[in-house]
Design goal:
8-stranded parallel barrel; 10 strands; alpha/beta; binds flavin-adenine dinucleotide
Length: 310
């Protein structure tokens, strides 16, 4: 089923889950064991992230270099196929612009159609290590809006009967490259106008940021559903890591509480769980259509929060 259909027919907020393909060396059975406990909650689908290939340059005797593909994770297509087979569940693969030409993305989408996948997330993708600014491939897409536009154009030109339901990303605290939140929201509207069906936000730890972002989107004429993204903090180290990795803020109250218990792993874990549970309950009471949980390779981290809130 298309996520847009689930969103239009829902009578209560539902659960949206995102997993990261495991590192190579992890077996299919381990992946299944990691995800299986989440089935207790009957998630309507699972998002599977996509990570740009990296390359290593090794020196050769003649002074030149040879280029080698370094793929640390199992491919998202393989992960999607395992989830489809084992759990008979919808999957939502993330399609990224970074590292791909338009032709390569078209061919990836053909594979997804072949697999019966009707939902995708369209994203620009992160920079690769060492890259300060995102650089599109020659013949690739610079922005997610160009990707969404190309998918819709292709569907129209080929008069395809089935079109993808397309989700896109957004940033309640602003995308780190945008000069200001207003411009970022105008760019978000370009993605919606290009044909995106719904929005999932970056994680945030202060619901006020989400509510003010949602209001600004409405003012800008963005009418598609906006699903908030959450992740429970699980260690004190994340107080430093997450703002750096995702350009987000962590409120003073949460920072202070985590730092006061920095030497007590169990206490930090518990604080993260309680904060996320409170965020989740508050969002549900403010009429969000769903809540998207970033499991980031540890499905067990979100189970207690979901059990308390759904
Ligand atoms: P875009 O919408 O293209 O925006 C990127 C920047 O360009 C913004 O600053 C925007 O304001 C600006 N911009 C957009 N359009 C224009 C325009 N026409 N002119 C000028 N400026 C413009 N990354 C991965 O690599 N793999 C994943 O699986 C993945 N999953 C994600 C899931 C979610 C829900 C979210 C929120 C993010 C995810 N990311 C993932 C991270 C994402 O790829 C990065 O945050 C990336 O830097 C931006 O992606 P985007 O699709 O939001 O980009």
């Amino acid at each position: 089923m298309k996520i847009s259909e689930i969103l239009s027919k829902q009578d209560k907020a539902f659960l949206s889950l995102e997993i990261v393909p495991p590192l190579k060396g992890i077996t299919k059975d381990e992946l299944i064991r990691n995800i299986a406990p989440l089935m207790e909650f009957n998630p309507p689908y699972i998002n599977v992230t996509n990570h740009r290939d990296e390359f290593e340059f090794r020196p050769l005797e003649d002074g030149s270099y040879s280029r080698h593909l370094v793929r640390r994770r199992v491919s998202e297509t393989a992960v999607c196929s395992v989830i489809q087979d084992n759990f008979k569940l919808e999957v939502v693969p993330h399609v990224i612009c970074g590292g791909y030409t338009a032709d390569e993305i078209r061919s990836q989408l053909e594979d997804f159609r072949f697999m019966g996948i009707g939902n995708i997330m369209a994203l620009r993708g992160d920079c690769i290590a060492g890259e300060k600014r995102f650089t599109a491939m020659p013949g690739g897409f610079r922005y997610a809006s160009e990707l969404v536009e190309a998918i819709r154009r292709d569907e129209r030109e080929r008069e395809l009967q089935e079109s993808f339901c397309i989700g896109i990303g957004a940033y309640p605290e602003k995308h780190f490259e945008a000069p200001n939140i207003e411009t970022d929201i105008l760019n978000l509207k370009k993605k919606v106008d290009a044909g995106a069906d719904y929005i999932i936000t970056q994680m945030f730890f202060d619901n006020k940021d989400f509510y003010s972002f949602r209001d600004r989107c409405l003012e800008a004429g963005i009418k598609v559903p906006i699903i908030p993204g959450l992740k429970p903090l699980s260690t004190a180290n994340q107080i430093g890591q997450l703002p750096e990795a995702f350009s987000i803020n962590i409120p003073v109250e949460l920072t202070d509480e985590m730092m006061a218990h920095a030497n007590d792993k169990q206490a930090c874990y518990q604080i993260g769980q309680e904060w996320c549970t409170a965020q989740c309950k508050d969002l549900l009471s403010h009429g969000v259509p769903a809540i998207h949980f970033y499991t980031m390779g540890k499905a067990s981290n979100v189970i207690k929060v979901i059990r308390e809130c759904f």
